Amino acid sequence: MYVKLQEMLERNHRISNLRFDKELKKISDETKQDYASLKAQNEINANKIVSNLTHELGNEIGNLDVDTRIKMSQWLSAWIYYIATEKQFDSKKLMTYKRGDIVHVNFGFNVHNELGGTHYAVVVENDNSASNGTVMVVPLKSADSEQEARKEIYERTDVYLGTGIVIMGKGKDKYTIAKVNQMRAIDKMRILKPRNSKKDTVYPLDSEVRKEMLDKIDRKISELYLKPKKTEEK
């Protein structure tokens, strides 16, 4: 592991020698070097590093088990889409997400214990505006039975929500766990559905189910991340 860490640090050192365009312009102004020449050489160096990294990535993926390779392929496909559409994406064209809405999210291919892949998640942010490109969510995980859900749950950080929470598509009969310690802000590009309140159904439909779900999650968030109030001495 130490050897791999050193290799990463060496790659990062080579990458640090590359320059962003605004840095090239500043160097050109300060040193009177030709900006076009600096940019051309920087692009050659960047292409060489990208080529090396792509080759290394291919080798590493080839060493993975099939299941992980499938997950990696799914994420790379999504990542290509994000790169191609990022500049045209406008969060204001999406619906406005409200606290308690269930969204289907592509969390991507993440590091080790960080939750990844496509999961449902519940919006926990108050008053998220359409112009805000991100939204705070708590990821959800499903199980086929209550016994399986309770066996998988980690009481310190997870909350068992029961059934009837996620009822979009095949998930309608699932037993749901809220992974509160994986709470995060996501870019709205990651949301697969719902995207249009006029076309997509927004779950949970039942206001009581929504309130009970949020109450459980709020208590766990408070327990994990808010400083406990000191009891006043009598």
Task: Describe this protein's structure.
This protein has 234 residues and is an alpha+beta fold. Helix content is 43%, strand content 17%. The protein has six helices and seven strands. Strands 1, 2, 3, 4, 5, 6 and 7 form a seven-stranded antiparallel β-sheet that branches. The model has no long low-confidence stretch (mean pLDDT 91).
Which secondary structure elements does this structure contain, and how are they paired or packed?
Blueprint: H1 2-16, H2 21-31, H3 35-62, H4 66-85, E1 102-106, E2 118-123, E3 134-143, H5 146-152, E4 158-163, E5 175-179, E6 184-187, E7 191-193, H6 207-225
Antiparallel strand pairs: 1-2, 1-7, 2-3, 3-5, 3-6, 4-5
Tags for this entry?
single chain; about 230 residues; alpha+beta; seven-stranded antiparallel beta sheet; 6 helices; 7 strands; about 45% helix; about 15% strand
